[in-house]
C-alpha cells in the first residue's frame, strides 16, 4: 500500500472517509450510484466496467462481478471483454460498450464522427451519457485505488443493485 494506514483502521474507510471526507464521501456516493441507478443492461455494463478494470489493472475491479436480481455474467465473460473485437459472445451493444470504454480511457481524442455514428445506432443519448459517467467513475476510482495500493483491500457495500465478487 502506498498510503500509511493507522493500526486497526480499515484502509478504504480511512482513505476515502477520514483523510479527505469532503471529497472521499462524495466520490464514494458517486461510485455507488453507478451501480445503484444504472439502467444499462448487465452485459454492456459489465463489458465497459471490466474493460476499464483491465486497463487500470485494479485487482479488486478485475475480480468483481456485478449482480442484478441474482444474475451475473458468465465466468468466461472477462476473457470475451479482452477479445471484444473478435468474440462471438457479444451482441453489438456489448461490443460497443467495450470499445467505448477502451477508447474513452486510451484515446478519447480519437472518438470521431464515425465512432459516434455507430454509437448512436446502438445507444440513445441518455444511455451514452449514463455509460460515459459510469466509465468516468470506474476509470477515476479504480485507477485511484490501484495507484494508492488500495485495490487489494477494496470493497463495495452491499445494496439493492450493488454486486458481489
Mean of residue pLDDT values: 91
Strand runs, count: 0
Rounded Rg: 16 Å
Outline the biggest β-sheet. none
Question: Concise description?
Answer:
With 165 residues, the protein is an all-alpha fold.
Please give a structural write-up:
- The protein has 165 residues and is mainly alpha-helical.
- It is built from 8 helices and no strands.
- It has helices at 11-19, 21-37, 42-56, 59-63, 77-82, 92-106, 113-122, 125-147.
- Helix 1 (11-19) packs across helix 2, helix 2 (21-37) packs across helix 8 and helix 6 (92-106) packs across helix 8 (125-147).
- The longest helix is centred in the last third of the chain and has 23 residues, at 125-147.
- It is globular, with a radius of gyration of 16 Å.
List keywords for this structure.
165 residues, mainly alpha, globular, disordered C terminus
Summarize the topology.
Elements: H1 11-19, H2 21-37, H3 42-56, H4 59-63, H5 77-82, H6 92-106, H7 113-122, H8 125-147
InterPro entries: AhpD-like
Organism: Rhizocola hellebori
Protein name: Carboxymuconolactone decarboxylase
Amino acid at each position: 500500500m502506498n498510503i500509511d494506514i493507522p493500526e486497526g483502521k480499515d484502509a478504504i474507510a480511512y482513505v476515502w472517509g477520514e483523510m479527505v471526507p469532503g471529497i472521499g464521501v462524495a466520490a464514494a456516493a458517486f461510485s455507488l450510484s453507478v451501480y445503484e441507478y444504472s439502467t444499462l443492461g448487465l452485459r454492456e455494463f459489465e463489458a465497459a466496467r471490466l474493460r476499464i478494470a483491465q486497463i487500470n489493472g485494479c485487482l479488486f475491479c478485475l475480480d468483481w462481478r456485478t449482480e442484478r436480481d441474482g444474475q451475473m455474467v458468465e465466468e468466461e465473460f472477462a476473457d470475451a471483454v479482452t477479445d471484444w473485437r473478435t468474440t462471438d459472445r457479444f451482441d453489438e451493444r456489448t461490443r460497443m460498450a467495450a470499445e467505448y470504454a477502451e477508447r474513452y480511457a486510451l484515446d478519447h481524442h480519437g472518438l470521431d464522427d464515425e465512432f459516434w455514428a455507430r454509437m448512436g445506432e446502438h445507444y440513445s443519448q441518455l444511455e451514452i451519457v449514463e455509460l460515459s459517467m459510469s466509465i468516468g467513475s470506474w476509470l477515476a476510482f479504480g485507477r485511484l485505488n490501484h495507484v494508492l495500493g488500495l485495490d487489494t483491500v477494496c470493497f463495495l457495500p452491499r445494496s439493492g443493485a450493488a454486486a458481489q465478487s
